[in-house]
């Protein structure tokens, strides 16, 4: 995999040449600020509105002010993000709640440290002409998914809650071509598209559609996008990661305050994006970037929310054993949490923090 690397700063190179030409010592003089700490963040997909706060923090200088040099990287294959973070190919990455819990079960020592999108974006999408007005109408219909195991479980749960048998609904994998499969009539509905992205795109194209998030169809709520890192990286780079998370929060605050200005760095980073679509998606997602509990900071991870979702995964055979949530998630890197609060983050061995409770049934 080839990761995108930021270019070296020309000014830094010229400064180094100038010092060499003058014959001055290259050692850092007393009182000189230390060099910025380097961190790499692997996105979950191509840069889009969901990442607006990251690019705003980078362009506004929030990362630099925090003493950080942050490389925002795009994965060649979104399915490999957690494996690359676990293998040390990136310091941090963006992933999804079910993927994180499954990775922990498989022995990958990664921990979720901040919620980026705090509720499900994954939705059941159908065009009005298909006549699917409620889950019961899925009987005899064909639903396309990205071929991901937990999406099949979502659809099975939706069907069961509607009084249907799983085989009453035909499921087909269409990969990431969910929108084209729907519009071409290859499928009657899709499950896997995001209400904020594909749902908005359908509306802007004047396509009459029904878009229902899965948490409105019987699936427990969960964090759609989450920032993760390996436990040993959290220990070794604790201070830098605390500053990173704070700076990202500032980025999302700036986007919330002025979406039009806030997404400009994103548009500059990915010139293939449709500005109208990205702005509308950003506006519709603003509320989901923040926890429902207004007393909590940006990035908050609810232990109860993760416990309920983990229990659902267990009941639907997506997990074969209980995962200690106090090593799978932590909010200790958020402002006002962790350092100085009397709580400890998971150590590099991944051992549970006994100061936090287990989840349902543990």
Biggest β-sheet: count, sense, barrel?
Answer: 5 strands, mixed
Low-confidence stretches: 1-29, 340-345, 347-362
pLDDT averaged over residues: 87
User: What proportion strand?
Assistant: 15-25%
Portion of residues within helices: 25-40%
Strand neighbour order, sheet with most strands: 2-1-3-10-4
The number of helices is 15
Instruction: Give the class from helix and strand content and strand pairing.
Output: alpha/beta
Q: Which CATH class of the largest domain?
A: Alpha Beta
How is the CATH topology of the largest domain named? D-Maltodextrin-Binding Protein, domain 2
End-to-end separation in angstroms reads 39 Å
The CATH H-level superfamily of the largest domain is Periplasmic binding protein-like II
Integer count of domains: 2
Structural features, described:
It is a single chain. This protein has 362 residues and is an alpha/beta fold. The chain folds into two domains: 35-119 and 223-328, Periplasmic binding protein-like II (D-Maltodextrin-Binding Protein, domain 2); 122-216, Periplasmic binding protein-like II (D-Maltodextrin-Binding Protein, domain 2, 3-Layer(aba) Sandwich), CATH 3.40.190. Helix content is 36%, strand content 15%. The protein has helices at residues 10-22, 52-60, 62-65, 81-86, 97-105, 149-161, 178-183, 198-204, 231-236, 238-257, 259-262, 264-269, 275-285, 303-315, 325-328; strands at residues 37-42, 68-73, 92-95, 110-117, 122-127, 142-145, 170-173, 189-194, 209-213, 225-230. The strands form two sheets. Strands 2-1-3-10-4 form a five-stranded mixed beta sheet. Helix 2 packs across helix 10. The radius of gyration is 22 Å and the shape is globular. Mean pLDDT is 87; it is low at 1-29, 340-345 and 347-362.
């Amino acid at each position: 995999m080839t990761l995108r690397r930021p270019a070296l700063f020309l000014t830094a190179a010229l400064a180094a040449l100038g010092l060499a030409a003058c014959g001055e010592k290259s050692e850092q003089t007393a009182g000189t600020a230390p060099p910025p700490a380097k961190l790499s963040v692997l996105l979950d997909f191509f840069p889009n509105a969901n990442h607006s706060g990251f690019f705003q923090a980078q362009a506004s200088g929030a990362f630099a002010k925090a003493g950080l040099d942050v490389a925002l990287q795009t994965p060649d294959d979104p399915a490999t993000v957690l494996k690359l973070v676990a293998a040390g190919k990136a310091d941090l990455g963006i992933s999804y709640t079910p993927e994180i819990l499954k990775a922990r079960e498989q022995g990958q020592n990664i921990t979720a440290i901040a919620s980026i999108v705090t509720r499900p974006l994954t939705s059941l999408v159908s065009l009005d002409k298909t006549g699917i007005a409620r889950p019961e109408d899925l009987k005899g219909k064909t639903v396309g998914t990205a071929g991901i195991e937990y999406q099949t479980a979502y659809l099975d749960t939706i069907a069961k809650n509607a009084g249907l048998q799983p085989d009453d609904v035909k499921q087909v994998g269409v990969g990431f071509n969910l929108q084209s499969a729907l519009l071409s009539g290859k499928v009657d509905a899709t499950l896997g598209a995001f209400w904020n992205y594909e749902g908005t795109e359908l509306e802007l194209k004047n396509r009459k559609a029904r878009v229902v998030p899965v948490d409105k169809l019987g699936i427990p709520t969960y964090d759609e996008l989450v920032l993760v890192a390996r436990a040993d990286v959290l220990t070794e780079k604790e201070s830098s990661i605390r500053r990173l998370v704070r700076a990202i929060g500032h980025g999302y605050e700036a986007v919330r305050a002025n979406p039009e200005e806030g997404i400009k760095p994103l548009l500059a980073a990915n010139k293939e994006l449709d500005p109208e679509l990205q702005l509308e998606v950003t506006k519709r997602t603003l509320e989901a970037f923040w926890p429902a509990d207004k007393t909590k900071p940006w990035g908050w991870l609810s232990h109860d929310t993760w416990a309920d979702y983990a229990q659902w995964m267990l009941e639907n055979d997506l997990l074969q054993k209980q995962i200690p949530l106090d090593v799978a998630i932590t909010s200790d890197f958020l402002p006002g949490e962790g350092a100085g609060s009397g709580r400890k983050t998971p150590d590099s061995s991944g051992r549970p923090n006994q100061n936090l409770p287990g989840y349902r049934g543990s």
